[in-house]
Amino acid sequence: MKRFLKIYLDKPELAGLALLIVLIAIFQIKSNGVLLSFENIRGIMGLLPEIALVSIGVTILMICGEFDLSVGSVFALMPMSIAVMLNSGVPFSAALLIGLLISAAVGLVNGYVTLHFSIPSFITTLGMLFIARSLTIVISGGFPPLLPDNLPTWLFTDYIFQGSILRMSFIWFAVIAVLATALLSLTNFGNWIRATGGFNEAAASMGIPVKRVKIVCFMLCSVLAGFAGLLQVLRLGSPCPRSAKVSNFRPSPRP
Questions:
Q1: Alpha carbon distances (Å) from 94 to 57, 85, 86, 97
Q2: What residues pair up with 167 in beta bridges, in sequence order?
Q3: Tens digit of pLDDT for each residue in 70-92?
Q4: What pTM did the predictor assign?
Q5: Mean pLDDT over residues 206-229, rounded?
């Protein structure tokens, strides 16, 4: 018992793992074994990368001492922009690059306004939430456009192999998670992020470019949110603006 207590004190995050195991056991019993069934796990693993990628970006930004409420709107804005461009004849690779740049621009604006005008990031990103959401509705016209049939969805959302429990999106998540871990643990920039989130004045006195570090973290957070939204849209086949009503849905014919 003392040994387990010592391990817990050394790594308190293990409490979260223990709670997860307890909850899984409870829900497995309450669902009569459905929770851990193959089909249910397959569905969960299809959704996990999209949520986890957003979480990675938000976590890095929180370590840096800031917060972003606009990730949900960027999650919709980036794939909606790509869908509109694809329907206008823009190649997928170019549309993807422009979509990522749009996401990065949102993060840049969030960081610049927060730091230049000394506005709390909670307030700045709350305003950006409504701006990005409105832009999503405006560029879509309020109706979800259909995606072309010739998109390389196999690279993003198809199952790794027939009968697999994992999609390609999980590979993207795993690679990005490893890179984020390496960024925080093995690079000077990761140390700058931790120092900036710990105490701005001390970090600045050590020569760390605090504002630049925070802006990069804002941009990274928005880019990951936008990319996660793209994965969801490619999986579903069409983006959906928040205000669109099913009763008013009038899809355009596929090319």
A1: 23, 9, 9, 5
A2: 159
A3: 999 999 999 999 999 998 899 99
A4: 0.86
A5: 94
Cα–Cα distance measured from residue 31 to residue 28, given in angstroms and rounded to the nearest whole number: 5
Considering the chain, what is the average pLDDT of its residues?
87
The mean pLDDT of 59-66, rounded to a whole number, is 94
Write out the chain in H/E/C secondary structure. Answer: CHHHHHHHHHCCCHHHHHHHHHHHHHHHHHCCCCCCCHHHHHHHHHHHHHHHHHHHHHHHHHHCCCCCCCHHHHHHHHHHHHHHHHHCCCCHHHHHHHHHHHHHHHHHHHHHHHHHCCCCHHHHHHHHHHHHHHHHHHHHCCCCCCCCCCCCHHHCCCECCCCCCCEHHHHHHHHHHHHHHHHHHHCHHHHHHHHHHHCHHHHHHCCCCHHHHHHHHHHHHHHHHHHHHHHHHHHHCCCCCCCCCHHHCCCCCCC
